[in-house]
Each structure stands twice: as structure tokens, then as C-alpha cells.
């Protein structure tokens, strides 16, 4: 009897959450204000990180910029000052190094205060086949793209939980949803980043910290230095995304407390088909759509 009741409860909850998701799709939540929030962005020295920093500055947030490259980070701060007359706090930090993250995080807390919006944006890609990729590069990919999130969450999440207020944003990838030919280490790192963010989000709900929101972003290739030279087999369905468009969508998702954001929308269908089709059919679909090379090819190792 208990089994039947539990099963019924699960079915009813599934129906309720499905209807809620449908309602949110038809009537999106109101955008919240980020004015006065302290936003920490990793990988802020270029590309998408710089664009997001500019948007948060425009909306009145306090900016804390992290990047391993000091010159690019300072340039982002200069543009913010010139464009919005806002000071951005800059810190040079290699997010793959745990002790460095903790050291710089303590400095931020002393000089700026508690971070209320944390955006893990820093990432690297090697673009090499698994057996051709040096061990050191594979380890670096995992350290930057996923393990670094452990350390930034450990550093800044406790204050968010204490105040039951905050937002954790993980800039992952569609390569964290679908396997990609030639990107084994990158996929592994992004699958890990998504799983980690999902798990922490559930922990927050289970412990009553519902004021700390989470957003997981899974975009297709973006036209930044990270994927320079990328092409797409089906540009109408899976176009190379412009960073300005991605930035706009991320900002909207954060302000509406949207948990998942996949770009373009066609990615939602690919993920759904991957899970409902038999394994062999899924592989055939992947080969037909190019899903396992993510409909793209590129060369070289880039970081953003």
C-alpha cells in the first residue's frame, strides 16, 4: 500500500511540476532587480565574461572581476568605468588552484564584502582527440571547467545560505548534455559542472535555502576566441551563437530565476530525443545531426 501511495505521490508531483513549467513558459516570472548586488564573474577579462560584466554594471550591480590574465581583466574594468562610470574590483586568480581561490576570496570579502551573485564563467578547451590530448591539458580542463566550481562555491556559498539570499550561475555548455567527438575531456568537465550545479541546487532546496537561486547555462558554440574557427553543419537549427545574444539570454534567465537555459532552443529537442530513443537510434541521430561533434569543427586550444 505504501508503494502505491508513494508512486501516486510521485506521479502527482510530476504532473504539478510539469504544469508549473508550462505556466512559466507561457507567463515568465518578473525580472528581479540586481541593483546593489555584488556580482563575482570568473573569466571576466574577455568574451562573454566581459559582456556580462558590462550588463550587470549597467543594471547597477557591484562588480568583482576575476581572470587569470590581468591585462584583459583591467581592460574590462576600464571599459566599465568609461561606459557606466562604475568602479569594478579586479583580481588576478587562477581558479584551477584551490588555495589561490580561497586566498583571493578572502581578499574579496575584506575589501568588497560578501558576494551575492557568483558566475562561474571561466573555461578552457583543448580541441584534441582523447588519445592525442596530453594528460596535463586534460587535467587542466577538468580543474578549470568543473573542479574550480567546488572552491568558489565553498568560498562564497556559506554567506548566501546564512542570509538565504544569492544566486549561483554556472556557464556550462551543450557539450555537457550530449557527447561530442573530439572533445572528451571538455565534455567530461561540462557534464561534471552541470551535475555539480544540479546537486547543490537540490541541497539548497532540501535544507530550506530557497532564497539562493541557481541557473545552469548550456549554450552551443559561441563566436568568441574560445571556439574560433568553429563551423556548423546546420546553421538554421544550430547556428554559431553571437556573444551579445547569449549574454542577453543569460541576463534574462538570471533575473527571472530560470534554472536551466539551453541555447539555441533546438538543444532542448536533442536532449529529449537522446533520452527517449533506444541507444542505437540515439547514436544514429547523433551522427545524422552531427551531435557528437556538436555540428561543428574547430582547431587549437583556446581559453575564454
Mean pLDDT, to the nearest integer, reads: 85
* Fraction of residues in helix: 40-55%
Number of helices: 9
Tell me the span between the first and last alpha carbons. Answer: 55 Å
Radius of gyration, whole Å: 20 Å
Number of strands: 9
Structure characterization notes:
This protein is α/β, with parallel strands linked by helices. It has helices at residues 2-26, 47-58, 70-84, 98-111, 135-163, 184-206, 243-255, 266-276, 279-289; strands at 38-42, 62-67, 88-92, 117-120, 124-125, 166-171, 212-219, 260-263, 302-303. It has a seven-stranded parallel sheet, sandwiched between helices. Strands 5-9 form a two-stranded antiparallel sheet. Helix 2 packs parallel to helix 3. The chain is globular. Mean pLDDT is 85; it is low at 285-304.
Layout: helices, strands, pairs:
Elements: H1 2-26, E1 38-42, H2 47-58, E2 62-67, H3 70-84, E3 88-92, H4 98-111, E4 117-120, E5 124-125, H5 135-163, E6 166-171, H6 184-206, E7 212-219, H7 243-255, E8 260-263, H8 266-276, H9 279-289, E9 302-303
Parallel strand pairs: 1-2, 1-4, 2-3, 4-6, 6-7, 7-8
Antiparallel strand pairs: 5-9
Helix pairs in contact: 2-3, 2-7, 4-5, 5-6, 8-9
Sum this structure up briefly.
The protein has 304 residues and is α/β, with parallel strands linked by helices. 50% of the residues lie in helices and 14% in strands. Strand 6 (166-171), helix 6 (184-206) and strand 7 form a beta-alpha-beta unit.
Amino acid at each position: 500500500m505504501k508503494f502505491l501511495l508513494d508512486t501516486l505521490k510521485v506521479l502527482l508531483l510530476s504532473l504539478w511540476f510539469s504544469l508549473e513549467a508550462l505556466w512559466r513558459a507561457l507567463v515568465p516570472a518578473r525580472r528581479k532587480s540586481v541593483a546593489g548586488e555584488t556580482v563575482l564573474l570568473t573569466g571576466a577579462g574577455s568574451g562573454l565574461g566581459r559582456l556580462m560584466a558590462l550588463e550587470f554594471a549597467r543594471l547597477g550591480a557591484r562588480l568583482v572581476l576575476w581572470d587569470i590574465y590581468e591585462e584583459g581583466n583591467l581592460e574590462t574594468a576600464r571599459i566599465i568605468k568609461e561606459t557606466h562610470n562604475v568602479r569594478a574590483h579586479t583580481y588576478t586568480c587562477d581558479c584551477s588552484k584551490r588555495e589561490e581561490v580561497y586566498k583571493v576570496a578572502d581578499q574579496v570579502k575584506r575589501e568588497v564584502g560578501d558576494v551575492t551573485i557568483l558566475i562561474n564563467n571561466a573555461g578552457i578547451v583543448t580541441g584534441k582527440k582523447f588519445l592525442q590530448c596530453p594528460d596535463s591539458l586534460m587535467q587542466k580542463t577538468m580543474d578549470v571547467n568543473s573542479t574550480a566550481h567546488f572552491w568558489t562555491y565553498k568560498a562564497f556559498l556559506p554567506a548566501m545560505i546564512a542570509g538565504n539570499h544569492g544566486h549561483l550561475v554556472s556557464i556550462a555548455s551543450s557539450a555537457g548534455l550530449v557527447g561530442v567527438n573530439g572533445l572528451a575531456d571538455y565534455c567530461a568537465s561540462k557534464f561534471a559542472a552541470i551535475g555539480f550545479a544540479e546537486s547543490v541546487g537540490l541541497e539548497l532546496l532540501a535544507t530550506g535555502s530557497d532564497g539562493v537561486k541557481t541557473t545552469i547555462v548550456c549554450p552551443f558554440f559561441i563566436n568568441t576566441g574560445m571556439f574560433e574557427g568553429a563551423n556548423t553543419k546546420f546553421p538554421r537549427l544550430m547556428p554559431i551563437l553571437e556573444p551579445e545574444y547569449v549574454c542577453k539570454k543569460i541576463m534574462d534567465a538570471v533575473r527571472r530565476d530560470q534554472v536551466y537555459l539551453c541555447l539555441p532552443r533546438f538543444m532542448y529537442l536533442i536532449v529529449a530525443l537522446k533520452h527517449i530513443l533506444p541507444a542505437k537510434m540515439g547514436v544514429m541521430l547523433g551522427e545524422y545531426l552531427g551531435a557528437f561533434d556538436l555540428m561543428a569543427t574547430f582547431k587549437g586550444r583556446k581559453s575564454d
